[in-house]
Task: inverse folding
């Protein structure tokens, strides 16, 4: 683990299920929430997962399809490379 370093989007996605299960250690959870605060893409992603849990009552690793995950991450990177004009 990269303890003490800023979390990036890839790492956040890796641990998001543990976060939602409240299974992260305190240090990782803090880095997770710090990343969420400064990354709209991941904030939206976690919000989407929370909505899924709200609808289904649970979230299993199976629900995180790798291709969907990769598409989300690609979308985040595109969004960061080309922020929408305001
Ligand atoms: Zn992110």
Result:
């Amino acid at each position: 683990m990269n303890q003490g370093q800023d979390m990036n989007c890839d790492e956040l996605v890796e641990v998001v299920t543990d976060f939602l299960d409240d299974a992260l250690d305190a240090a990782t959870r803090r880095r997770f929430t710090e990343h969420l605060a400064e990354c709209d893409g991941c904030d939206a992603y976690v919000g989407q997962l929370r909505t899924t849990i709200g609808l289904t009552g649970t979230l299993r690793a199976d629900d995180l399809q790798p291709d969907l995950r990769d598409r989300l991450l690609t979308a985040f990177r595109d969004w960061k490379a080309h922020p929408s004009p305001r």
Summary: The chain has four helices and no strands. The helical segments are 9-20, 26-38, 40-56, 66-81. Residues 40-56 form the longest helix (17 residues). Residues 9, 12, 35, 39, 41-42, 76 surround zinc ion (CB under 6 Å).
